[in-house]
């Protein structure tokens, strides 16, 4: 009994240390799963029976790239999620690419459609638009510098009118960038849902 009294603080410290090690071990098990355990657990059961073949990928790629305004097509498969990424030319219209997700579905079996979640991302480089935007922004910056140095009221009025016009031109160019467009279909759905465009937000298809 005297031993416990004399070493009370030490015993409490040891007990707390053991508890802390135990809690840390449990937390580590949660945060760092066993490497031997598959990332998707049993969610990928049966995937071998509905595996998407290279022939199917190539058929999708060939049909999509048969359009003159398609620059490239790539794919990525992560578990049950199939990504198809399509890059199109700057002058491609929203309506021209609206059928692309259906092209992907046309080359998949019914079993594959009901197993995989599918995302089709359609994007542009916007090379010409970005060049115009850069040029307009430079003009805006120069106009602002000139305005800061100008004291004549009539000249200031003219400069502010030019600045407003350039800012409207810049905003118009930004609004024209309606891509990327993303179509998504989960395994339980029959149709794709589209996101709104990144630009003026007018493109939406459900």
What is the CA-CA span between the terminal residues? Answer: 77 Å
CATH class term of the largest domain: Alpha Beta
Give the averaged pLDDT, no decimals.
84
The radius of gyration computed from the alpha-carbon positions, rounded to a whole number of angstroms, is 30 Å
Q: Tally the structural domains.
A: 3
State the CATH architecture of the largest domain: 2-Layer Sandwich
Strand order of the largest sheet: 1-2-3-4-5
The helix content is 40-55%
Structure description:
- By secondary structure, this protein is an alpha+beta fold.
- 49% of the residues lie in helices and 16% in strands.
- A five-stranded mixed β-sheet has the order 1-2-3-4-5, covered by helices on one side.
- A hairpin with a 2-residue loop joins strand 1 (70-78) and strand 2 (81-88).
- The protein is flat.
């Amino acid at each position: 009994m005297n031993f416990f009294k004399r070493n009370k603080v030490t015993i409490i410290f040891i007990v707390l240390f053991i508890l802390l090690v135990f809690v840390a071990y449990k937390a580590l098990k949660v945060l760092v799963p066993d490497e031997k355990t598959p990332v998707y657990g049993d969610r990928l059961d049966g995937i071998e029976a509905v595996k998407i073949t290279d022939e199917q990928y190539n058929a999708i790629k060939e049909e999509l790239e048969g359009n003159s305004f398609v620059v490239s097509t790539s794919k990525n498969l992560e578990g049950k999620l199939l990504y198809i990424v399509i890059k199109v030319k700057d002058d491609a219209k929203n309506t021209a690419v609206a059928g692309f997700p259906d092209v992907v579905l046309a080359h998949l079996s019914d079993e594959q459609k009901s197993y995989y979640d599918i995302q089709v991302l359609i994007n542009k480089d916007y090379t010409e638009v970005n060049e115009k935007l850069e040029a307009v922004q430079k003009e805006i910056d120069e106009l602002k510098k000139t305005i800061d140095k100008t004291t004549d009221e009539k000249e200031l009025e003219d400069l502010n009118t030019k600045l407003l016009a350039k800012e409207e031109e810049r905003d118009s160019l930004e609004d024209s960038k309606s891509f990327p467009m993303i179509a998504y279909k989960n395994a339980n759905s029959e149709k794709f849902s589209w996101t709104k465009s990144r630009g003026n937000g007018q493109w939406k298809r459900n």
